[in-house]
């Protein structure tokens, strides 16, 4: 079988996870009211503003990957048909269609809340007079409701991409590996969720927040610990994935071998393990111990985690070897 | 606003963790409930359609005439065919497994399809309605036999449709007509006198990889044990 899904889909998987993770990171700060303890909180601003566009761009890439659906765009409406209850891709288009507007709205509300000048600009526009009734709606409670609803769809977005791969079942054994050998429960959805959270926190906290609020590790000491726990969990899941794949044997073991020591090993070790796992792990261990990390190490950690997230999804995608016949 | 050093209290951390866990559990349950990862009624029991196509791998020489005939009959792009050969065995015991759509009773392919574009006819033949296909290629990955191809020209997935236009007119599929050593036997499985029926009844012709749980209804293979 010729591999059909390439970089377009890998980037979509990454953007979907990143957007969902950013949303959840921002939501955590919003719902614990941490966002309101600073004059300006980079985490919620970055998270909310990146989440919607990231997943939207991913969805556009999905459309470009289609065949007939691209030339005859009305066919895309057929994808929403609820006739085929089993199709994960169908549930995916529904989840994205609900999540993207919610995330975009959250981004807009967060901008309006953070920058009163922007809000005044909108209020003073003549061509927006017909929207005056919106001024009556309280901004912050609305934002909270959208964030709470959005959280479910963010988790669904991060999970469903993993379920999509797992649902291929016996056709691509490496994609449907269980969590542990001989134990039920597919690995991929959990791994993708944790990876999404990690990339989301990597972008919002390590990158954005560190650039603007240097002392973020001081302000929220739990942050490095939480991120460390996530990195640790992701490492554990990835390790379990490979162990189970090797134990399962057949093409699953072949795929795992290709990644760890075979043709894909350079991408795996140099572009995923070191920048996405080892380096951030060390940085955050220091952060938890010393109570801070330098801006440079935070940036490096953030960039590394985000890049590793992209390459990890690409690698899992291209390493999926179909079942032997 | 006074910026002060804030520690997440143990209670806050606990409630945050529990909320996150609950959200994940609920979402995963909803997700798993909707996206069944196990197919509709999987099983390895034999399933029969009206037609049977039996490929005798002990006779097949791997000449590829069926592959070429399929390409020509279906006007596929150059190099594409609904039949793909798999070379098996070593240099002393070489044999060929010609794989095409098995017309399974349990359509793993359609379970991945967001537009529900594949359906089973009353006679058990599985047909893809290319008017509904968006070309997402999920079915191409979902088929455990890798029997589907992506037709770049039409932008849709495509697969063996058992040359229904020829068969319904009383003829044979193109691959059966083209087979030079006579390794392909086509017949009606509801006719006990047909060679195909007898091969199935004798247990010589068996489904390919029944452990996938797909219950192939049309295709059977005679493979030397």
Task: Provide an overview of this structure.
The complex is a heterodimer of chains A (325) and B (225). Chain A has one domain: Formate dehydrogenase/DMSO reductase fold. Chain A has 12 helices and no strands. In chain A, helix 1 crosses helix 7 and helix 11 runs antiparallel to helix 12. The N and C termini of chain A lie close together (12 Å). The model of chain A has no long low-confidence stretch (mean pLDDT 88). By secondary structure, chain B is of the alpha+beta class. Chain B folds into 2 domains: 30 residues; 172 residues, Alpha-Beta Plaits (2-Layer Sandwich). The longest helix of chain B is centred in the first third of the chain and has 25 residues. The termini of chain B are far apart. The N terminus of chain B is likely disordered.
List the SSEs and their pairings.
The complex is a heterodimer of chains A (325) and B (225).
Chain A lengths: L6 H25 L10 H24 L2 H4 L16 H27 L1 H9 L14 H28 L21 H25 L3 H4 L2 H27 L1 H11 L4 H26 L4 H24 L7
Helix pairs in contact in A: 1-2, 1-6, 1-7, 1-12, 2-4, 2-7, 4-5, 4-6, 6-7, 7-9, 7-12, 9-10, 9-11, 11-12
Chain B lengths: L9 H25 L16 E6 L8 H9 L10 E5 L6 E5 L8 H5 L5 E3 L5 E3 L9 H5 L6 E3 L4 E3 L5 H4 L6 H5 L5 E5 L6 H8 L16 E4 L3
Parallel strand pairs in B: 1-9
Antiparallel strand pairs in B: 1-8, 2-3, 4-5, 6-7
